[in-house]
Amino acid sequence: SHPRVAVQVVAHDARAEGDGGRKRADAAAQAFVEAGIAQDRVQALALGTRRPVVDPQDARLRERNDRLEVVFVTRSP
After folding, report:
1. What is the C-alpha to C-alpha distance for residues 74 and 76, in angstroms, rounded to an integer?
2. pTM here?
3. Could you give the residue ranges of the DSSP H alpha helices within 1-77?
4. Which of 33, 40, 42, 61 is most solvent-facing, going by the fewest CB within 10 Å?
């Protein structure tokens, strides 16, 4: 219902193993498309371990870095 708003789905991983969150990002983006958002307004990104929110060396906190962010981007008129 908001044609000037795009959606970015950004997956982050707690560990440097695997696909960097690509499968999770793609699945979440597909859910937005299936909910009715045009495919050209949805972007999936997998950043892996590049943007941690806590020290990845701390085993007690490391899992916080494993997350999925949804960013709403307003396009210019």
Report:
1. 7
2. 0.85
3. 22-34
4. 40
Predicted confidence at residue 77, as pLDDT, reads: 65
Phi first, then psi: give them for residue 49, nearest 5 degrees: -105, 10
> What pLDDT is attached to residue 75?
72
pLDDT digit string (tens) for 42-62?
A: 999 999 999 999 998 998 998
Give me 11's structure tokens: 């997956």
Distance of alpha carbon 52 from alpha carbon 39, whole angstroms: 28
For 12, the enclosing helix (H) or strand (E) is strand 5-12
Two tokens, residue 29: 């983006």
